[in-house]
Predict the structure.
Amino acid sequence: MIWLDNSSNYTNFHIHFIIKFLRYLGISPDKTNIIFDGFDMLNGEFSNDSQNINYINGNVIKNFKGFLGTDFDEVRDLITSSFERKELLEFLMKYMQIHMENFRRPQSLNIMYDLFKRK
């Protein structure tokens, strides 16, 4: 939180926070095969198995990888468009719904979309 108080560019902070929080929830993705282009949502691992119904690839996975292993100071330029932020947040919400039985999508998500809207 000290970083947030001292920073002037925090448009990606909420995404970075959620990704780091996954570890504390016990559902952090397995980064062993991070070089693969896709991600298996059910098993929480990077994969190239495009036949798997839980497989997702594309720009959202590229952005997801960009946040894994980064520090707060490095996240400001990872995603520059509000569309990409929204896409990654929706991906994270779906991932959390799969892995947390009673997870409900936060009502404040639409407020966050408006708050961090740029370009």
Notes: The longest helix spans residues 82-99. The two ends are 26 Å apart (CA to CA). The chain has five helices and three strands. The first strand starts at residue 38 and ends at 40.
